[in-house]
Amino acid sequence: MDDKGRRNELVAEYKATRPDAGVYRIVNTATGKSLLGSTTNLASIRNRVDFARNTNSPGALDGRLARDLAAYGLDAFTFEALETVKVSPEASRSDVASELATLEALWREKLGEDSLY
Known about the structure:
About 45% of the residues lie in helices and about 20% in strands. The protein contains 4 helices and 3 strands; from the N terminus they run αββααβα. It has a 3-stranded antiparallel sheet, with helices on both faces. The longest helix has 19 residues, at about 95-110. It is flat. The chain starts with a helix and ends in a 6-residue tail after the last helix.
């Protein structure tokens, strides 16, 4: 197979692969509070937290964390994937969004509103 054929094959494979979706939280280890969320791309949220930490850019994170970021610093925050959903190629965006909303609501109930931002 030539380089162009291999490249086309890799591009097609990339497009067919969907990133992991799921429910996550960003935990303030100093206070125990956490920001709960869901996304169709867990890696993007993990990368955002890593980027904020590596570049000392707290503004890259959700504004609800701003006060505690200023008080405790970026090192007090960790990313945690609570539940991962494998998205099948047949699943529609609305199906995935609905499943994520349900899972997030279950986690919100489990963790308790008083421990969340």
